[in-house]
Amino acid sequence: MKNYYLNACIIEVYETKTHVDDVSASIYFELANYHPEAFQIVKERAKTFIESINAAPYYEKEGYRPYMQIIIESYKSKEISRFIRSLDRYMMLE
């Protein structure tokens, strides 16, 4: 599910800029043992997170944002690990 979060962040950034012909999100969905609601929660969190990224200080005038740097830092953070663990309640019993 943590990899799905990373994928959702990247797609959120680049989906509107270029056509993304990648099925990774679908593969994570198929392989994971979570209810669909968990994926929607992750996707919404990724969208909110991406929208919160501010322009880089050196490029503020141009409005450029360090998306990949911030996404990777978030992916490796304890906060996201806790968030992903909180989704365990959506795991499907086999």
Describe this structure in words.
By secondary structure, the chain is an all-alpha fold. The protein contains 5 helices and no strands. It has one domain (2-90). The chain has helices spanning 2-14, 24-31, 36-51, 67-75, 78-86. The two termini are 17 Å apart.
The count of helical stretches stands at: 5
Mean pLDDT: 89
Estimate the global geometry from the Cα principal axes: elongated
Rg for CA atoms: 14 Å
Biggest beta sheet attributes: none
| Secondary-structure content class | mainly alpha
β-strand percent reads under 5%
Total strand count, please? 0
Write the element-wise H/E pattern from the N-terminal end onward. HHHHH
Helix content: 55-70%
Q: Termini, distance in Å?
A: 17 Å
Identify low-pLDDT runs: none
Q: Into how many domains do the coordinates divide? A: 1
Question: How would you concisely characterize the structure shown here?
Answer:
This protein is an all-alpha fold and 94 residues long. The protein has one domain (2-90). It has helices at residues 2-14, 24-31, 36-51, 67-75, 78-86.
Tags for this entry?
94 residues, single chain, mainly alpha
SSE layout:
Elements: H1 2-14, H2 24-31, H3 36-51, H4 67-75, H5 78-86
